[in-house]
Amino acid sequence: MSTFTRTAIVVSAIASLAGTLAAQSYSPLFAPRSTHREVWVCVDQYNRPIPYAYFTVATGYYAYTNAHYHDDPWHVFSTATPYEGYAGSSGEFGFDLATTIVAQAEAILMSCSNEFGTVYASADFGVGYNDLYYNHHDGIWHKIGGTDTGANTGHGTTDYNRYMRTDAAYGVYYATLDYLAGAPGQQKVCTNDMALWLGGKFDINALIGAPWRSPHASHDRGTAVDVAGPGSGQCPDSYEVNVAAFIDRCVARGALRTYSVNESNHAHCNWANPATYPH
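RESULT FIELD:
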């Protein structure tokens, strides 16, 4: 027996299967909570498909990716169904890859065997969104949150949660300019909690007993931002906003009124209905 092929791509053999891996690639990138059909073939040394070979399939994750700087035995990751079976006469074995709601680097781990032996292989993939980009404008925004001004909640510096979809990024940028134009003497506002690099579950509760779940579910898709008002404890007084007034500016720039919330000490502006992305 020789190796595996997946849509004509040959992957290198590995020595063993494991749940936690050590190096990663984010390609291909699949959206959170989506299902993808995988078809693999085990080939011999002459690159001929091996009919009726026995397959096992597992999935694993790379720890500490996409700013999830913590790990525990309950770490969630994608699943493969079925996880074992026999190839048909063509040598093909198919399974469904169901991704998790946590955006991160993962891998498919496989074995293929017949009476002549067993080979192992892996193929990397990522879970997340490919339409988010880093969003900060130092001339009008002051960064707060994360380990910079807040507590260590498992995602490190606030720079790791400053990614947004284009519509939301432009929306909050122009909402800020509008607000500052009506607030003489105020130079900046304090921004926090956009989305992680690949989006997905923003599990700020990781270190306080609720891992891989999030009270910040509305930030999973890169469509929302928090802007500090009085009482945040992290924003300089001169940069605090009138929360209701800032939400009005967001709505005028395309945010949805229903999902843009006055949280007392900050404005939560959202350019999408959270029900439109997975939780």
